[in-house]
Amino acid sequence: MEVSVHNLTKTFGTLRANDGVSLRFAGGQIHGVLGENGAGKSTLMKLLSGFLRPDSGEILLDTKPVALGEPGAALRAGVGMVHQEPLDVPGFNALENLLCAAPRWALPTRTEARNTLIVLAGRLGFSITPDDPISALTVGQRQQLEIIRLLACGARTLILDEPTTGITAAQARSLFVALRHLADEGNTILFVSHKLDEVAAICNTVSVLRSGQVVGEGQMPMPQPQERLLKMMFGSGVDHVPSPASRLLPPASCLPPPASRLLPPASCLPPPASRLPSPAPSPLAWQLEGIAAREGNLTLTGLNLDIPAGVVVGLAGLEGSGQKILLRLLCGHLRPSSGRLRLAGADMANTTPATFRQGGVEYLPADRLIEGLVGPLTLTEHFALLQSDGAIINRNVAEAKARDAITGYNIKATPDSTIQSLSGGNQQRAMLAMIPDTTRALVCEQPTRGLDVASARAIWGRLMARRDAGCALVFATADLDEILDYSDYVLVFFAGRISQLIPRAELSASRLAELIGGVGFESADGVAKANLQ
Amino acid sequence: MISRDQATRRSTLIIAALALVGALIFTSLVLLSSHVPPLAAYKLIFLGAFSTPTRISDMVMLASPLLLCSCGLTLTFAAGLYNLGIEGQVALGAVAAMIPLRLLPNLPPPLLWALAFAFGAAGGALWAMLVAGLRIKLQVNEIFAGLGLNFLASGIALYLVLGPWRRLGQASSSGTEPLPADVWLPTLGTLRVAPAAPVIALIILALIWVAVTRTRWGLELRAVGLNPQAAGRMGIPAARRLAESLAACGALAGIAGAIQILAVFHQLIPSISSGMGLLALLVVLLVQASPIWVLPIAAAFAIFTTGSLQMSVALGADSSIAGVLQGALVLFALLARGLSGRR
After folding, report:
1. Which residues, in sequence order, are bridge partners of residue A343?
2. B195 touches chain A (CB under 8 A)
3. Do A352 and A427 belong together in one domain?
4. What pLDDT shows up at residue B55?
5. What whole-number distance in Å separates Cα of residue A158 and Cα of residue A320?
């Protein structure tokens, strides 16, 4: 079955998630679709599988234009999508899930459904039996069940969104065998991923999306050189400076010419090592020894890491590659399943986030109104909450502190403004203003998410001042420029694996992009021996 | 503690007016449909409680424990909890208050009253701590935990009435042996009003007002109620504050239970709380945890309930119309709030 889209456009507010996308996916092949976060891959796949309706443009199945209003209609037309998180009912067994999620015409009786499940599982080499309870299945097996369901409902085009996230290597191999088998039977497979090696391993063609548009000449036959694909994925930022206006560091006076930005001149951006007090070793903020931790379907293992005080460590990687696990470990919101975590030398086993906080760790979450601040309370009330002594609130003191914060951090608000009435940038500044002076380590998740350039610069000015005062700062962001501009060291995450601490000076933008895409990740361990003690 | 700006105050007034008008229209429709003249009915509901000194004293004796329960619920509501278990906490408070009264009847009455109040508070707090434990340790929603414990509490009260504490010679589900009159809370002359009850209730209301609006503990409760995650990030022990608010609410409900024993029924009866906890829940739903409004609303509800008691005699209609009016007020207030929030 041939799937093609013509001039497909979908906007969310002012964001053009898909902007005139035209592609043709031939039947009997596996097609890779690459792109970084927010490139528009998921939007395209949701348009194809009926979860979204396009604003304009056409979807053609076997050259016939179709209107896919909802997922059921798409499935009747033969297009099915396997989501990253399988959409199933945990309390049911495999057979019940198959029955309840399939239309009546596809599987009229329980016996028929049971036979279909057994036959398809056997044909595809999947290890599922009808009576397995969903709660006992792995993510990989639930994904297999979802594929079986789509095929049983007549899908001839399968869309897989990051299918290897959260499944074992063995399951990924058996998935690839099954996908190849399905393609050979004439089905069309769309394989959405950011893992270049997987795309290279199984795809016949590849298309790259960036900022909602198809990059370059469109669909290309595989194999393609990795550097080319990376350049297409991450765009111009990989080999020249995109916009000097968004820089805070290095100062404009010594901005290097674009071509030389890969290796900033030492005079401009001294390598971090030279800024550390050289004879006396820098005090360590965190020490992680053999840490393993799990959250959702992602596991970090064998994590050995020393983070010194007074440096900025940027966590790079595509969203959901494990950065959040490390951030939450560092502030005590997630307990390691094994290993030892020390904070300023003190063992943090069996402690709570409150212990970390007393130890001087402050956590700035990305969801400011969910985890960060209490939206309906005012600035003054927040400062009253942070007063450390006295049972009775001293409203005058709290209000004075709120006023200080408003002038000091340039927050556009009055002391009586509720937090939820502030703009995102002002909320972020308010959160920064509330960090106690005793803080020795800051953990920031996307510190400038949703902020305009000026606000982001202001935030970074504050964060850098904290660093210069000796505070350790670990931050995660999806913005490569932010990583390169502000980090002293970079940690790259790829599918739950972590590189060593790489000094910023030894890392070029193109190398960072490669690492984020998983290219040469194994050898990244040797990239830099970050010997910090 | 925060002087809310004028706009919010005005919208609060508009919501209140809308709720009142909506509730009156709705209640009038109910009255008309049962052929009761609405004006005569409203005259009874609004003014009936003031018609005789007896009725005024009945109203005060209903309002006092209601005020205590509402104060307690103000705390749990601020902490974001729906403490439906308050009925059981009142009952357990009443049961606990009976213990010193039965065991040490020869103590001087003032000491006995103090003991009864202390036991009542402890009993209610203990029962509420069960809810807190289920909620915090076992992630059982406080609504279900509270409802389950309500059944258990009324079971305990019924068991005591019919079993160990039954009247001499006969077991009657109507109640235990009445307490000797010298341990009743003293009343004004022959009226049923015991001044100690409203005084205690008003003192506690003042304390709660200070706690919620002036202390850091109260502010922390509100922060936990509005956003437990963020409160935890800012170093507030969220689980502990939840438990404390439930315990405090239980203690106040227990004191209300002790008042029911010492000053209203003078014996343990199976339905000792008489639905007062649920009525207090309506009060607090209406005032949304702002303590200054607790007194007028609780008083108004007590006035409605007392006034409507004369409906069956005067108009041949059932007294439950007060419940219709109270429920409609809450419903329309929630509706108006929802609508103004959507704008």
Report:
1. A286, A346
2. no
3. no
4. 86
5. 23
